[in-house]
């Protein structure tokens, strides 16, 4: 019909024709915006190939391991000339699209077994013959130092132009692999899915300690033109897709001192009860430091009791009194006893005008930010919604230790409130599978030394991790923990056990934490000042 079909239309037609299993990818691509640049056929093709390879690797790792048929090896690269082989003689490429380690260099093998048949399918659908396989030894540069490396089951493909390290093979051996441009994404997961550019800026300017990343990677992540904006975090797409634009400029200047102005707001009811039986949470935000403290509540009527907890905590920490409390006109803030308490302590109560929530914008934005982070973390590791309070506690813990546009550059709430630089080297990805060490005093010689659990956050009363032991149906607090952040621990707990959690959850303290003499803390109450308020 002599109609010209442009590249964008072809790309959209391809996306429209995909089966349902690609829906997550389509949502992620749509969230990028800038259709003229993103929806090119080559870009869509590359993302589809990556998604297909990722799904294939996931399926392969979930099934029972078996030796591949001799024609089952694949590689997305193609064969090449002798000149290219000579140029690549000393190079090994890390390849996520290759199902086996491959090299063309026969001299690298320390053991060798000839193969009479077998081939590797290339990205062009052509096949290259496999001459043999065996063990290969070579020197690997690790942080500037040479280290000997041995690979098993390496294919010898004489017609190939590269030496490839297969990601799927390394992962199957228990290794963790991350590509150069993705290193900041891994940190991003540990940091409750906060903004990647903000994380890179903190590292670059030494705002926090405990992170070892090459400066070239950090600078690349900070630069929006570097291509990192095309890296998609599906958990963020699902968790933050409805986030509205937040004004960058506030209408008034920041308070001069801690507790000169405190913002507060109640969020809820949430659709799922926490494991402690809560459906609401209340936030308190110090305007000067932007330090956040959150408490969960079973009912809105608990707001006054939670304010008194916060008031005592904050005043003890700072040596100052709350001068102004700014809230909306919710009934939980307007009770007679609440008003009398504020008057008695000389605290001015500023109320927003009816139907103008933007006047309480600081607290409104904090609540929205925290809920976004909670959704993203729960989605990323497919953690049960019943653990939203633990995810909320982790969000607050991290939010208080990362930079924010509300504060001067290179400053976190922790810098101002705690007067120290936050260390983030112990942060881990919420929902990851982990193993905690059992106390030796409780073990016999042949007993297992550790138990499997799920990482839920950070203890507020000691330097330890909070874990969920699904078999015991308990929260465990322990310092001796080994993590596997590449897995989703929640999949290992049968659904009926997750659904049967009641509000009377025990807390087991290990590794010397048994010295904590206060009443067992309510695991839903989130006091991010280093102290967890006692349970009811």
UniProtKB/TrEMBL annotation:
Stated name of the protein: Integrase catalytic domain-containing protein
Please explain the role this protein plays, according to its UniProt record.
Answer: The aspartyl protease (PR) mediates the proteolytic cleavages of the Gag and Gag-Pol polyproteins after assembly of the VLP.
Gene Ontology molecular function:
ATP binding; DNA-directed DNA polymerase activity; endonuclease activity; metal ion binding; nucleic acid binding; peptidase activity; RNA-directed DNA polymerase activity
Does the UniProt entry include the keyword Repressor? no
Q: Which residues form the Integrase catalytic domain?
A: 243-421
The cross-references to SUPFAM superfamilies, in alphabetical order and at most eight, read: Ribonuclease H-like
Q: Which domain of life is it from?
A: Eukaryota
Could you tell me which species this protein originates from? Chondrus crispus
UniProt region (Disordered), positions on chain: 516-536
Keyword check for Magnesium: yes
PROSITE patterns on file: INTEGRASE
């Amino acid at each position: 019909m002599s109609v010209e079909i442009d590249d964008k239309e072809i790309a959209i037609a391809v996306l429209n024709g995909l089966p349902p299993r690609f829906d997550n990818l389509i949502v992620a691509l749509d969230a990028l915006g800038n259709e003229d640049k993103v929806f090119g056929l080559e870009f869509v093709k590359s993302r589809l190939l990556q998604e297909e390879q990722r799904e294939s690797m996931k399926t392969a790792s979930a099934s029972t391991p078996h030796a591949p048929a001799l024609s089952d090896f694949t590689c997305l690269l193609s064969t090449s000339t002798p000149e290219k082989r000579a140029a690549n003689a000393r190079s090994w490429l890390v390849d996520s699209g290759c199902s086996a380690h491959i090299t063309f260099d026969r001299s690298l093998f320390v053991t060798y077994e000839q193969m009479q048949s077998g081939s590797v399918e290339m990205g062009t659908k052509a096949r290259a013959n496999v001459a043999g396989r065996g063990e290969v030894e070579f020197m690997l540069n690790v942080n500037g130092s040479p280290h000997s490396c041995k690979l098993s089951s390496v294919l010898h493909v004489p017609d190939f132009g590269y030496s490839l390290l297969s990601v799927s093979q390394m992962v199957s051996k228990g290794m963790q692999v991350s590509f150069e441009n993705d290193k900041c994404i891994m940190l991003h997961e540990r940091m409750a899915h906060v903004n990647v550019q903000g994380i890179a800026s903190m590292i670059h300017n030494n705002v926090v300690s405990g992170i070892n990343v090459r400066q070239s990677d950090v600078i690349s992540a900070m630069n929006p033109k570097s291509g990192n904006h095309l890296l998609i975090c599906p958990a963020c797409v699902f968790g933050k897709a409805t986030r509205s634009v937040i004004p960058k400029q506030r209408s008034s200047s920041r308070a001069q001192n801690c507790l000169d102005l405190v913002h507060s707001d109640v969020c809820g009811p949430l659709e799922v009860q926490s494991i402690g039986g809560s459906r609401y949470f209340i936030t308190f935000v110090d305007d000067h430091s932007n330090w956040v403290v959150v408490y969960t509540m079973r009912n809105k009527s608990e707001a006054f009791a939670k304010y008194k907890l916060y008031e005592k905590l904050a005043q003890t920490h700072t040596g100052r009194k709350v001068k102004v409390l700014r809230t909306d006109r919710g009934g939980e803030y307007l009770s007679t006893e609440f008003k009398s308490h504020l008057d008695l302590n000389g605290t001015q109560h500023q109320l927003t005008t009816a139907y103008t929530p933007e006047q309480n914008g600081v607290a409104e934005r904090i609540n929205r930010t925290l809920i976004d982070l909670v959704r993203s973390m729960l989605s990323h590791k497919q953690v049960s919604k019943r653990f939203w309070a633990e995810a909320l506690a982790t969000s607050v813990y991290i939010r208080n230790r990362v930079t924010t546009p509300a504060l001067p550059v290179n400053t976190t709430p922790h810098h101002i409130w705690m007067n120290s630089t936050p260390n983030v080297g112990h942060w881990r990805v919420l929902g990851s599978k982990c193993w905690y060490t059992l106390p030796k005093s409780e073990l016999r010689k042949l007993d297992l030394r550790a138990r499997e659990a799920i990482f839920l956050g950070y203890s507020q009363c000691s330097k330890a991790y909070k874990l969920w032991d699904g078999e015991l149906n308990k929260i465990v607090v322990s310092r001796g923990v080994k993590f596997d952040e590449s897995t989703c621990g929640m999949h290992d707990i049968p659904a009926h056990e997750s659904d049967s959690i009641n509000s009377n959850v025990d807390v087991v303290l290990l590794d010397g934490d048994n010295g904590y003499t206060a009443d067992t803390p309510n695991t839903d109450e989130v006091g991010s000042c280093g102290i967890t308020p006692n349970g009811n």
